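FORM 7B: Structural annotation worksheet

SECTION A. Query
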Amino acid sequence: MPRDVEARQPFGRFFLKAKTVPDRVVKFPPGEQLHAAEKRYAGNRTTTTKYSLLTFIPKSLFEQYRRVANIYFTLVAALSLTPYSPVRPWTTFLPLGIVLGAAMIKEAVEDYRRHRQDV
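SECTION B. Predicted structure
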Protein backbone atom coordinates (compact mmCIF):
# COMPACT_ATOMS: atom_id res chain seq x y z
CA MET A 1 0.00 0.00 0.00
CA PRO A 2 1.45 3.44 -0.79
CA ARG A 3 2.56 5.59 2.10
CA ASP A 4 0.02 8.35 1.55
CA VAL A 5 -3.04 6.10 1.62
CA GLU A 6 -4.95 6.24 4.88
CA ALA A 7 -6.68 3.14 6.18
CA ARG A 8 -9.82 3.50 8.23
CA GLN A 9 -10.12 1.20 11.20
CA PRO A 10 -13.26 0.93 13.32
CA PHE A 11 -13.00 1.94 16.97
CA GLY A 12 -16.36 1.70 18.67
CA ARG A 13 -18.70 4.07 16.82
CA PHE A 14 -15.76 6.11 15.45
CA PHE A 15 -13.19 5.42 12.76
CA LEU A 16 -9.49 5.99 13.37
CA LYS A 17 -7.23 7.07 10.54
CA ALA A 18 -4.03 5.04 10.44
CA LYS A 19 -1.26 5.54 7.92
CA THR A 20 0.57 2.48 6.67
CA VAL A 21 4.33 2.58 6.27
CA PRO A 22 6.19 0.37 3.78
CA ASP A 23 8.95 -2.02 4.88
CA ARG A 24 12.26 -0.35 5.58
CA VAL A 25 15.08 -1.11 3.17
CA VAL A 26 18.66 -0.20 4.05
CA LYS A 27 21.02 0.13 1.08
CA PHE A 28 24.76 -0.33 1.55
CA PRO A 29 27.54 0.86 -0.72
CA PRO A 30 28.68 -1.95 -3.09
CA GLY A 31 31.88 -2.81 -1.16
CA GLU A 32 30.23 -3.10 2.26
CA GLN A 33 27.72 -5.86 1.60
CA LEU A 34 29.45 -8.60 3.54
CA HIS A 35 27.87 -11.76 4.73
CA ALA A 36 27.28 -11.86 8.51
CA ALA A 37 29.67 -14.80 8.88
CA GLU A 38 32.50 -12.75 7.37
CA LYS A 39 32.15 -9.95 9.93
CA ARG A 40 33.62 -10.25 13.39
CA TYR A 41 31.20 -8.98 15.98
CA ALA A 42 31.82 -8.43 19.65
CA GLY A 43 30.70 -11.19 21.98
CA ASN A 44 27.28 -11.13 23.54
CA ARG A 45 28.28 -12.69 26.84
CA THR A 46 27.06 -11.19 30.09
CA THR A 47 28.81 -11.70 33.40
CA THR A 48 27.55 -10.70 36.83
CA THR A 49 30.74 -11.33 38.78
CA LYS A 50 32.37 -8.45 40.65
CA TYR A 51 35.90 -9.78 40.86
CA SER A 52 38.59 -11.51 38.85
CA LEU A 53 41.62 -13.30 40.28
CA LEU A 54 43.75 -10.17 39.91
CA THR A 55 41.24 -7.70 41.30
CA PHE A 56 39.80 -9.69 44.18
CA ILE A 57 42.06 -8.47 47.00
CA PRO A 58 42.10 -4.73 46.09
CA LYS A 59 38.39 -4.53 45.33
CA SER A 60 37.44 -6.60 48.35
CA LEU A 61 39.53 -4.46 50.69
CA PHE A 62 38.00 -1.35 49.14
CA GLU A 63 34.53 -2.76 49.80
CA GLN A 64 35.47 -3.62 53.38
CA TYR A 65 36.90 -0.19 54.14
CA ARG A 66 33.79 1.55 52.87
CA ARG A 67 32.36 0.57 56.24
CA VAL A 68 33.19 3.11 58.91
CA ALA A 69 33.56 0.46 61.63
CA ASN A 70 36.42 -1.23 59.78
CA ILE A 71 38.23 2.09 59.40
CA TYR A 72 37.75 2.81 63.10
CA PHE A 73 39.10 -0.56 64.24
CA THR A 74 42.07 -0.26 61.87
CA LEU A 75 42.92 3.12 63.40
CA VAL A 76 42.58 1.68 66.91
CA ALA A 77 44.85 -1.21 65.91
CA ALA A 78 47.39 1.23 64.48
CA LEU A 79 47.32 3.23 67.71
CA SER A 80 47.98 0.06 69.67
CA LEU A 81 51.41 -0.07 68.02
CA THR A 82 52.51 3.04 69.93
CA PRO A 83 54.29 2.67 73.28
CA TYR A 84 51.48 4.63 75.02
CA SER A 85 48.84 2.00 74.26
CA PRO A 86 47.52 -0.01 77.22
CA VAL A 87 46.84 -3.09 75.03
CA ARG A 88 49.06 -5.30 72.96
CA PRO A 89 48.82 -4.97 69.15
CA TRP A 90 47.74 -8.55 68.57
CA THR A 91 44.62 -8.04 70.70
CA THR A 92 43.28 -5.54 68.17
CA PHE A 93 44.82 -6.81 64.91
CA LEU A 94 43.68 -10.41 65.39
CA PRO A 95 39.91 -9.68 65.68
CA LEU A 96 40.15 -7.15 62.84
CA GLY A 97 41.91 -9.71 60.63
CA ILE A 98 39.31 -12.36 61.47
CA VAL A 99 36.41 -10.03 60.65
CA LEU A 100 37.98 -8.82 57.38
CA GLY A 101 39.01 -12.34 56.40
CA ALA A 102 35.57 -13.80 57.06
CA ALA A 103 33.89 -11.04 55.07
CA MET A 104 36.32 -11.53 52.17
CA ILE A 105 35.71 -15.28 52.16
CA LYS A 106 31.95 -14.67 52.13
CA GLU A 107 32.31 -12.30 49.16
CA ALA A 108 34.52 -14.81 47.34
CA VAL A 109 31.93 -17.58 47.79
CA GLU A 110 29.10 -15.30 46.60
CA ASP A 111 31.11 -14.22 43.57
CA TYR A 112 31.96 -17.83 42.72
CA ARG A 113 28.24 -18.73 42.87
CA ARG A 114 27.46 -15.81 40.53
CA HIS A 115 30.18 -17.05 38.17
CA ARG A 116 28.70 -20.56 38.14
CA GLN A 117 25.26 -19.17 37.30
CA ASP A 118 26.71 -17.17 34.40
CA VAL A 119 28.00 -20.27 32.63
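SECTION C. Observations
The mean pLDDT is 81. Strands lie at 6-11, 14-19.

SECTION D. Sign-off
Analyst initials: ____
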